[in-house]
Inverse folding.
């Protein structure tokens, strides 16, 4: 559909090496390095409005990246068995008009989550469970690191205060 002459999408926006690029849908055209997410600059450089662009966000870019989307845009959110509620919300909230009801999100689930197709509430509960598991793992890992650090400090302190046999004879 992106390569069709009458396709409404003219560019696919994506990040490469941390820099925003636009790939024209014409397979003969080369990507354009945009290096900005400012809507006015993107419109000027591409000569089109956000409704003519499809934006791909990788997981790293779902936090803190704002690229203007069409007011009636539709998003696809990919979800696997490890996706947390927080990471899902970070991704879909790139759609700033979602809250006002003008934009839509469709979830695509991996094979091991097929039971949740058409069950949005169940999927959200699963993502929340994943969030809780992730948080528990983070707390456990952090506690182990703190314990390891405390043990290391105590051992170093003891080592520093060991007297050598020659020190004991001098006393």
């Amino acid at each position: 559909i992106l390569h069709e002459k009458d396709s409404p999408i003219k560019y696919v926006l994506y990040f490469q090496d941390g820099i925003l690029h636009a790939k024209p849908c014409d397979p003969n055209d080369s990507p354009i390095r945009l290096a900005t997410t400012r809507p006015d600059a993107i419109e000027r450089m591409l000569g089109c409005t956000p409704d003519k662009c499809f934006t791909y966000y990788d997981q790293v870019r779902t936090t803190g990246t704002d690229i203007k989307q069409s007011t009636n845009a539709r998003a696809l959110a990919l979800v696997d068995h490890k996706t947390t509620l927080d990471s899902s919300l970070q991704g879909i909230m790139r759609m700033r008009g979602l809250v006002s009801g003008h934009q839509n999100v469709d979830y695509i689930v991996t094979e091991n989550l097929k039971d949740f197709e058409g069950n949005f509430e169940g999927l959200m509960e699963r993502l929340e469970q994943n969030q809780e598991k992730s948080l528990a793992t983070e707390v456990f890992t952090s506690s182990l690191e703190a314990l390891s650090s405390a043990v290391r400090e105590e051992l170093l302190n003891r080592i520093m205060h060991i007297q050598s046999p020659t020190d004991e004879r001098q006393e």
Observations:
- The chain has four helices and six strands.
- The CA atoms of residues 62 and 91 lie 5 Å apart.
